[in-house]
Amino acid sequence: MSTRPVSTRAAMVLAALAMLLASAVGSGAVASAQSSNPFQRGPNPSQSSIEASRGAFNVATESVSSLSARGFGGGTIYYPTDTSQGRFGVVAISPGYTAGQSSIQWLGPRIASQGFVVITIDTNTRFDQPGSRGTQLLAAVDHVTSRASTTVRARVDASRQAVMGHSMGGGGSLEAASSRRSLEAIVPLQPWNLDKSWNEVTTPALIIGAQSDSVASVGSHSIPFYNSLGGEKAYLELRGASHFVSNTSNTPTAAYAISWLKRHVDNDTRYDQFFCSSRPSTSVASDWRTTCPF
Question: What's the burial of 31, exposed, middle or buried (CB within 10 Å: 0-12/13-18/19+)?
Fold first, then answer.
């Protein structure tokens, strides 16, 4: 039989109760934070988490053949397998002039693993201009929200949409935002477009330019686009990079695109830190601009 004094036992019981209470309060605080933003997904972010090659969510894929696609050339859907945290925003990504989806496909699983449903597309022809690419990006978003498999559609929040694209695909994302004002975010990558004025676009836009771009020079494309935009915006210029920097895995591109999508598609203010309280290192960025606070 134990001879431990009753007072010691009582103290142990009280300590255990205190731990349970603290745990409950902590859980309640987390639940409260999530309920205040029903779109928040995933753990607290850090510089290492946004730069990781994969995020917290496991990802599956679904192919979209050119025969089943309506209004675009087919593609690949990447989606989180998790169903416990609610539905996810949708992001469509277009390649540039003469390129296929393989040139931007690395972004699909990388962004999806952070908590998005992503479709990387082929265009109807490789020579489609930005206006056509913008229309095709919206058609791809609509495919994911209304014509994809029930497995995919069960994970998509059709009210939270974003588009991205490289080169003419980036110019296409500006066209898409001009056409569909309900988009939550756009991320043009080394964008090209003959139209330099986008004051009608109020969709939050992150433009990523390349300092040594000889195809869509930042002075003729990215910077005029950024200056003309009418909404929240940020501009990252990658130091020493060429026009094709987004066609292979690139950590700064992914990290800032993910953070922008999280902030504006998920309304997740935990990602403000990457735009408001810090800036890219000078080894990464030759130019950095933002309208933060958002």
Answer: exposed
